[in-house]
Amino acid sequence: MAAKGIHVDQLAAFERIVREGSFSRAALALGLGQPAVSSRIVALEAAVGGALFTRGRRVALTALGEGFLPYVRRTLDVLGEGVAAARLAQVGKRGRVRLGALGSLAGGLVGPALAQFVKTHPEVDCMLRSGDHEWLLELLLDGIIELALIAWPAKQSAAADLTPLFVFREPVVLVVHPGHALAVRKNVTADDVARLARPLLRLRWWPEHHPVLTRLAARTGAGVEIAMEAARRLVLEGVGAGFFTRTYVLDDLARGSLVEVRVRRFAPIFRDSALVRRGRTPLSAAAASLAQAIRLQAEALEGAARRPMAKAAARRTEKASPSRS
């Protein structure tokens, strides 16, 4: 590294001589011969245009050297910080991560993963943007974000330029207020949903509406297409019913503010999403660490979702099995 003929090793030799008080002790501390140290100082003095030390029985700074010393120390400190930052970035402890996520996953999936990541990587600058599938694709393809959690699969034209890191599958479940008519019925059919939902809130968890839910909404005669934030608020207030991704209402279900309604003979519906990056350029260490944290949270959510489904399947099998005497 040089600036107008000045090299870092010359600055380091100058600062060490000041600290040690002699050329010989500075050479010993730097692991060099004294001629090498003297040569560096001669070159540095030529670059700054004057003597930095008075030579004699004792080494002392000249006025030029006194004025130059604070800038040398500041330069060496900044370079040291830069090297340390570069090393931390190489192992994912420093740097910047730019992430986008579907609004329905920003809280339940990305939020816990990001919280854990920030605790273990406090020096990494994180940016998270949430929005719909199409907007996130634009941000990713324009290079504004480097990772995006989007609905999957994407359209073929976009998918050709994307590399999925993992796919997250979550159930889409019918959710109502605990006091709703559908919540108090023991057995709910699709006919019951069509008759009692009123309105059945139409939510687009995919790039396009799910055809089964579209047909069901048409049967109610009172479908309402609405943003997910507003739909959640309506259902919490006891108005209507809606099919929500489980991750989006996970906390409400855990608190009992909302309840899941299982519809008899209604095939399970899922929404797949994927954490993707553009092309095949390797991720920075920090981005790779955050991606792994999100993957682990996704696996935990998938495992939690499978447990009640497995129990329900076991109950159905038990009921279908002939009784034994």
Describe the structure.
With 325 residues, the chain is of the alpha/beta class. The chain has three domains: 2-90, Winged helix-like DNA-binding domain superfamily/Winged helix DNA-binding domain (Arc Repressor Mutant, subunit A, Orthogonal Bundle); 95-169 and 272-309, D-Maltodextrin-Binding Protein, domain 2 (3-Layer(aba) Sandwich); 170-271, D-Maltodextrin-Binding Protein, domain 2 (3-Layer(aba) Sandwich). The chain has helices spanning 8-20, 23-30, 34-48, 63-90, 103-120, 133-141, 156-159, 190-196, 211-220, 228-236, 250-255, 285-320; strands at 2-3, 6-7, 53-54, 60-61, 95-102, 124-131, 147-151, 162-176, 200-202, 224-225, 241-245, 259-261, 269-278. The strands form three sheets. Strands 5, 6, 7, 8, 9, 10, 11, 12 and 13 form a nine-stranded mixed beta sheet that branches. A two-stranded antiparallel sheet has the order 1-2. A two-stranded antiparallel sheet has the order 3-4. Helix 2 crosses helix 3 (34-48) and helix 5 (103-120) crosses helix 12. The N and C termini lie far apart (88 Å). The model has no long low-confidence stretch (mean pLDDT 87).
